[in-house]
Amino acid sequence: MTNIVVAVKYVPDATADRTFNSSDNTVDRENVDGLLSELDEYAVEQALQVVEAGEGEVTVVTVGPADAADAVRKALQMGADKGVHVEDDAIHGSDAFATSLVLAKAIEKLEYDLVFFGMASTDGGLGVVPTLVAERLGLPAVTYASEVTVDGDTVKIRRDGDAATQEIEGSGKLVVSVTDQTGEARYPSFKGIMAAKKKPVEEWSLSDLGIEASQVGGDAAWTKVESFEPRPPRTAGEIVTDEGDGGSKLVEFLASKKFV
Known about the structure:
Blueprint: E1 4-7, E2 10-12, E3 34-36, H1 38-52, E4 58-63, H2 69-78, E5 82-86, H3 96-108, E6 114-118, H4 129-137, E7 141-145, E8 147-151, E9 154-160, E10 165-171, E11 174-178, H5 190-196, E12 201-204, H6 206-209, H7 246-256
Parallel strand pairs: 1-4, 1-6, 4-5, 5-12, 6-11, 7-11
Antiparallel strand pairs: 2-3, 8-9, 9-10
Helix pairs in contact: 2-5, 3-4
């Protein structure tokens, strides 16, 4: 039996007009549509495949405001068995280090053999959280997996890099992060959507995890956004009229921009 905890994140929709809060320069998560991070869908999918090949349960855990419950709900609709939502006003503004603390404390309260992550978050772009959580849990981390194979208590991954492919093996409790190369994540079926309504979701606060408010939030963050401004609108490009010398004009233009 393999019990897997999958950490998931509720992120602003990448196709939406994303911005920051003018009050504290944190990501605006209230005035934009959000969803389960696409990269975390791959982690949920891999966990489900492992459990379906044998026995066990998949538990998803998220840290975030009230709307973050939608990320848990989507994972349950995909087939996860239960969820945990850590919500506390004091968490607002937390950086990767504080987030890893909250996740690690939540995972410690759960029964698990493996912990799965997506390779990064699609809002912050950080891929360090899985390793930070592994360090806090005192577990090895096998990261950036393009393929995951679980046989008993042995986990094998394939990591495809720019110059080489690595095969990594670990045993016992592990933290695993997967890339979008693992294959398409499943879509929730109507049956899965209906079944998700009956699946348990626990709601925890910082006090439930034994974490002081001073350990998280914007005041405890190691980095902060000092200022931001909207990206300027794109300007019209230069049109080269071909009068028999279009090729020469194009080369001159590219040379002026130091492309050639």
